[in-house]
What does this fold into?
Amino acid sequence: MEEIPSAHAGLMANEVKRRWESFTPGGENNEGIPDPLDEICSYALTAPGKLFRPVLLLLSAESVGGRVADVLPAAVGTECGHVASLIHDDIIDGDAMRRGRPAVYRRYGMDNAIVAGDALLFQIFLCLAECRAAGVPDGRIVSAMEIVARAGVDLCRGQALEAEITSRSARDVRAYLRMVRLKTAALFSGACQAGAVLGGGPPEWVQALGEYGDALGIAFQIQDDLLGYVTDAGTTGKPATSDIKNRRLTLPIILAYEAGTARDRAVLDAALLGELAIDEALDAVGGVLRSTEAIARSTAMARTYTDRAAAALALLPASRGRDHLAGFVERTVSRVR
Amino acid sequence: MEEIPSAHAGLMANEVKRRWESFTPGGENNEGIPDPLDEICSYALTAPGKLFRPVLLLLSAESVGGRVADVLPAAVGTECGHVASLIHDDIIDGDAMRRGRPAVYRRYGMDNAIVAGDALLFQIFLCLAECRAAGVPDGRIVSAMEIVARAGVDLCRGQALEAEITSRSARDVRAYLRMVRLKTAALFSGACQAGAVLGGGPPEWVQALGEYGDALGIAFQIQDDLLGYVTDAGTTGKPATSDIKNRRLTLPIILAYEAGTARDRAVLDAALLGELAIDEALDAVGGVLRSTEAIARSTAMARTYTDRAAAALALLPASRGRDHLAGFVERTVSRVR
It folds into this structure.
């Protein structure tokens, strides 16, 4: 997903940037008393991201006949929610860098990072309320609120499930898919559904776009797992060093475990439990991945979900918005970073 | 605030308890895959709290002529939001115990505590959406969403400001009042306004209840500060050991600093910067508090805000709900724990 193929990306980048800067705290003149939260949230929001989720919301609204200008605040809110989850994720994963700069918790401390993430979660709904001034009917806004809040709870369920799966080294493709659906696809699907509802789409189109987002999100995450196994020069067939060091359970590993022999499993266990030197582990895991054809099978699984996303889009009438959404499907499985 | 003087408290306790237990993740059958978030959120929600914020919401709805049953889900959401802030606060403050049990982060780890707090923030809005099924018009729900989201952002501003004030040991009554207004009073005021809006109150009653909640919240926090200076046997005139150890800036200390002589300030600095042994610090600070009459002046300031809360209520028509709200005003300044 190198580039969002749409004029919406530039629009979103400006809107998100201006969001926190233009925000003034409610009900009080602060009379020169510092407001440290503003600086922290601006820092988090102004780093350039892919803006993928807000653009999904805009295009979903467009593809059901809605106007981009009406749902722009809600799209900004979607990005606030995504950034909030990144801020909290970085604390949890101990990732020091984010988007080429120190993570919020490294720059401002963990306490401020927790609070800034919380503030950006509330911003989702403050943004959503602004759609009223843009002329969106209240009934649509309430429906979008429910969709977004449910996606948020699902995201949290996915994060808790990921921690649980990792802690017991579960290698179970069903549990993996449930985790990915909750952790990644729920926000994709929520952004699509919210856009469709705010844009005034009928229930069957809202549902189709929800299925599109769900399938796209799962394909996106599988591809993310696969990126560890490829370089600019092509597929390496070996896992990424960082995935092995972090004992991250990626789909290729899970499929290799399920398809492998007892000996293959013993090799994977040893490598993932840190019982082998890193070079030895990379070679050993690479060998099992090849013999079980786990990379090819993961790629095929991603393709299943992109097919499903494309099929969901076919339920919508032809439009420029739908064309852009279809473009995402192909890019998801061909992206290299 | 030993007891909420209302039948609503029992009702709320049941509703909050059942909330997470009855909640099922959206859109998928989990087929025996564990859902660790449920257990963590249930743990956090089922500890008995004062349920003060949700009861404020119910009584505010009642006092403008609304029905308790219609706004019950929103009240449950208010408690979810309060519990979320406690979960995150306990991580930030390093408080090991909450409501007589280990804090969530002590029981389930920091990572899970961050995620569980996030989930409960989203629950605020999922609860709010349920008011639709109870028959509340969409327009009121959107207004309530905006009020609650703004209160949430203000709460975060207050937490960030508190950290900033504490780190530079600022002793400034204006900054203190702004911090208290954001950190404590915003949620009180938000709960009251949300109840009034959902209950169908006209703008002037919504505003009056917002002012009531704001003033009550400030008085509540000042009283909380004062609790460190009293025992069951009466006012000690000395600060609490934990407040001195944590270098917590309470209103009596701030007023003593502003009213004291240069020598008084030097004594307070030495005590609060940990340069004195704890017993010596307690005696020294106690002496300055007495000579500056800081406790009496803090009590008087709390009384100013309870008077303001009572005056705001006088703008509403007489009702049982209003009587209960008036009862809270008196209890706020007379509570001993």
Notes: The domain at 8-20+43-334 of chain A is CATH 1.10.600.10 (Farnesyl Diphosphate Synthase). Chain A has a mean pLDDT of 88. The beta strands of chain A are 97-98, 101-102, 230-231, 234-235. The longest strand of chain A covers residues 97-98.
